[in-house]
Amino acid sequence: MDINLKVKQGLRIRAFYLFFIMSGIQIGVGVMGTPKYIFLDAQQDSWISVLMAYAAMLIVLWVMLLILKSYDNADILGIQVDIFGTWIGKLLGTVYMLYFAFVLLVVLVTYIDVVQLFIFPQINTWLLGFLLLSLVVYCVAGGLRSIVGVVFLFFILSHWLLLLLAKPISLIDISNYQPVWQASMIDLLKGAKSTTFTFTGFEIIFWIYPFIRNKNQVWRPIFLGATWSAGIILLNTLIVIGYFSATQARTIEWSVLSLFKIVELPFIARFDFIVVAEWMMITLPTMMLLMWAITQGMKRLYHVPKRITLYAAALIFLVVCGFIDEHHLIMALNNQANSIAFWIIFVYPLALLPIVKLKKAWQSRSKKGAKR
Amino acid sequence: MKRKNQRKKHKDDFFPKKIDELEQIMQSKFENNQDLTFTIYEQDKGQRAAVFFIQYMVDIDQVKEYLLDPFLSSQDAWSTPSLKNDIPIADQATENTLEGILKGLLVGKVYIYVEGEDEALSYFLLNKKHRQLSKAENESVVLGPQIAFTESLITNMNVVRWSIRSTDLVMEKMMIGHKYPREVCLVYVKSVANQTDVNTIRQRLEDLDVDDVEDSTILMQLFSDSSSSMFPQFYATELSDRFTHDVKQGRIGVLTENSPSGVIGPSTFFSFFESTEDMYMRWNIGSFLRLLRFIAIIFSIFITPLYIAAVTYHFEIIPTHELITIGKSRAVVPFPPLFEAMILEFLIELLREAGARLPTKIGETIGIVGGVIIGQAIVEAGLTSSILIIIVALSALSSYTVPNYMMGASIRIIRFPMMILAGLFGLIGIMYGACFLVIHLVKLQSLGRPYLAPVYPFRMKDLNKALFRLPLQFQNRRFLSFRPKEPYRYNRQEARRKHDVDK
After folding, report:
1. What is the pLDDT of residues A78-118, one digit of tens each?
2. Pairs of CB atoms within 8 A across A/B
3. ipTM of the complex
4. How far B367 CA lies from chain A's nearest CA (Å)?
5. Is the CB of residue B300 less than 8 Å from the CB of residue B418?
6. Are B443 and A135 an interchain contact pair (Cβ–Cβ within 8 Å)?
7. To 10 degrees, what angle do helices B405-443 and B386-399 make?
8. Does A11 touch chain B if contact means CB atoms closer than 8 Å?
9. B339, B361, B366, B337: which is closest to B351 by C-alpha?
10. Angstroms from A35 CA to nearest CA on chain B
11. What share of chain A is helix, strand, coil (3-state, %, to 5)?
12. In chain A, which residues have their Cβ closer than 8 Å to the Cβ of B430?
């Protein structure tokens, strides 16, 4: 397996789009429910937890870029093979892919659950799964460039929802934030850990990096993208804390969606229906990028044509998602994803960096030795 | 000597022939046809020559005045070189194959063959009947040139040449169709147009293996990128100013013989919503008109499905007092909202189709009968609600704001799957349709260039050509997404400079 990828010039994308890829994959189903889970740990200081998670994410992103920059044009699959050898490297790559598949499944069933909760309680899970997966398949079959295009357009087409938040913002009770700094450091860290699942997705950088055209400019869009998604999560957390009372914030499921219930226009009485439908445009980019990563991984590790992986994976997801239709099961899966993601996306890169650096140093030393 | 040797190599040379033999061959080719005029003239010295042509393809007056008169009054012995001198027509050529002669006869050439010569002389004295240039009827504009293309390629080329007076304008002719060949003309400005695009379109045209091309619009479908898509990937226009404007900006035009529409490529999705009028208007008004059209399209696609979704599944989203009105007007309607809307949309499509097929005068009557009388009767009979009539009429009206007829048709057809989706899955169905459309548009290409440019791939500097307009001093760039050879139209600093006060 080649450690570095050769990507045709026509298939590469501008670093500019990393902003949209970052926020497209990070802002997904997680945002809808996270404020509640952070609130359970850190109470009215939840927003500090979000900021802490944001700082941690920036550090990890920086570490990821350090790792990637020690190679010419490699992705995480190639790097793992380079460092741990073919067998362990491929095994780790497979684990990474299974993790992606798991996250994709969780996103899929969570969105279906939300639709069933808010709009159609009776609708068949398989039917909704088929609708969503058919869109994913149709888009991913167009290749990375069309995925990035769709991510970009969906970003623009869905962000008008932010304007609707003006109404709940105007109803915020400032006293809900007080007193500040009540939560202990442990609680704050616990709260920060609960945000992991929302922040997942930025590990896609590890996969997409070889496809970037202008690599010297990657940091800014990545940084801004991470800041944007963290900003949106922070905003939503702040509004949830301020708008709901403490008991409500602790008990209301999908509290962010509930924020939109109060919004009203002369011709539309209940906005939450439209918001839940519109959320499809927020969920799909996550699923598309994850699906692309799975097809890319299968191609890299096992030389399976992307189309075959795509159809097979979609079929498996479709079959599996129909069996996961219990709300508590989905919540359990979300928690599970949260804890797995914490290890894979936050801890793993930090552990990988010293190994990569050591190996590189050792390589350059032995090269020098050979020259002498 | 050398020349004779060369000649001998071509054993299948048609000439020299006896005149009688030639006449027989020609008559046999035009069996049962009285089209061919084959006249044999004889000089005093016994030398014979034949003049033959198809009567209605040539200009008889010219044949008599410029060809036959000097030919017959010539005092010298006839021979090909002497005739070349005697006959005062510039467009002459020689021909020595039967196939070439037959082809030439069909495009209006007159042939003279002197017995015993190696080749026949041909003169191009075409008499082509064509319609006078007239006002554009299908794409009407208020301001700007009204002239529309006609079915004659020569006339269209003349019109284009007059608008682009530059030696850089290239008009490449090629023949397409192996059974009924037809002239197709590739038009581009060589110093501006992207060479890759020119090569691509030329390649696609040359690779076409069809028996016949009936019209530009069919040619357009033959070389389009995706044949399964509902959207047109090339802009077909009958307005010559639209055509020349796009060619001047570096796009490539295709004109076809006997077709009154020119095809422009590569085209973007947004170019189908711009009219030349936006440019002739002042920039702020032009921007407004363009914005209006985009809003109209979104409105047209989504408003009826939204009604269906809201009334079928999500009546919570309708405010209470409006819900009462809708409920009242729907109380007598026996159908579910989907059928109700389908009936009305179907009616509107019927009216449009009937109006387009019927002669203009009857068409207007149909409009009044359909719109006013049937509409009112349907509501009174309780088949649909009156609110839905308003919605459907508005959405039909909005769809007609699209300047391009083909895109307008696509937009109208898209509504039907959208309505079905809305009827089946409510808001989720509408969202599904919208997502599908976006993905589809992102994947589409026109001549290998992204269809959604400049929105994706995003290029800020091109937005003012697609979504809105800016004052002319900011319009100094060409459409960069298609990589023209010369990106600038004029100097930006010059354009923005202002005189000092009171100068």
Report:
1. 999 999 989 999 999 999 999 999 999 999 999 999 999 99
2. 89
3. 0.94
4. 31
5. no
6. no
7. 80
8. no
9. B366
10. 25
11. 80, 0, 15
12. 277
The single-letter DSSP state of residue A265 is: B
Which CATH number is A78's domain given? Answer: 1.20.1740.10
Structure tokens given for B184:
């197709």
**Any CB–CB contact under 8 A between B228 and chain A?**
no
Among B257, B246, B248, B179, which Cα is nearest to B216's? B257
Euclidean distance between CA atoms A201 and A23, whole angstroms: 9
Contacting residues of B for A270, CB less than 8 Å apart: 314, 316-317
Rounded to the nearest 10 degrees, the angle between the axes of helix B386-399 and helix B283-312 is: 140
Taking only residues 117 to 146 of chain B, the set having a beta carbon closer than 8 angstroms to any beta carbon of chain A reads: none
A329 touches chain B (CB under 8 A): no
Cβ atoms of B434 and B260 within 8 Å: the answer is: no
Chain A interface includes B430 (CB < 8 A): yes
Partners of residue B432 in chain A, C-beta under 8 Å: 131, 135, 280
* Model pLDDT for residues A8-21, shown as the tens digit of each residue: 888 899 999 999 99
- Is B316 close to A149, i.e. CB distance below 8 A? no
Nearest Cβ partner for A284 among B426, B435, B457: B435
CB contact under 8 A, A131 and B428: yes
Q: How far apart are the CA of A323 and the nearest CA of chain B, in angstroms?
A: 21
Residue whose structure tokens are 């009937």: B354
Residues in chain B: 503
Look up the pTM and report it: 0.91
Range of the domain at A164: 9-358
Burial of A361 (0-12, 13-18, 19+ CB in 10 A): exposed
The verdict on B314 touching A (C-beta cutoff 8 Å) is: yes
Q: Which phi and psi (to 5°) does residue A177 adopt?
A: -85, -15
- Number of separate domains in chain A: 1
Q: Which residues pair with B170 in a beta bridge?
A: B188
Where are chain B's structural domains? 12-124, 153-269, 281-443
Cβ–Cβ contact A181 with B under 8 A: no
Query: Distance between CA atoms of B306 and B420, rounded to whole angstroms?
Result: 11
pLDDT (tens place) for every residue of chain B, 503 residues total: 444 444 444 556 777 888 888 888 888 888 777 788 888 888 877 788 888 888 888 888 888 888 888 888 877 788 888 888 888 888 888 888 888 888 888 888 888 888 888 888 888 888 777 788 888 888 888 888 889 999 989 899 999 999 999 999 999 999 998 888 889 999 999 999 999 999 999 999 999 889 988 899 999 999 888 889 999 999 999 999 999 999 999 999 999 998 999 999 899 999 999 888 888 989 999 999 999 999 999 999 999 999 999 999 988 899 988 899 888 888 888 889 999 999 889 888 888 888 888 887 787 787 777 777 888 888 888 888 888 988 998 998 999 899 999 999 999 999 999 999 999 999 999 999 999 999 999 999 999 899 998 998 899 888 988 899 888 888 888 888 888 888 888 887 777 788 888 76
- Within 399-428 of B, beta carbons closer than 8 Å to A belong to 425-428
Closest chain B residue to the Cα of A270, Cα to Cα: B317
Secondary structure of A315-357 as H, E, C letters? HHHHHHHHHCCCHHHHHHHHHHHHHHHHHHHHHHHHHHHHHHH
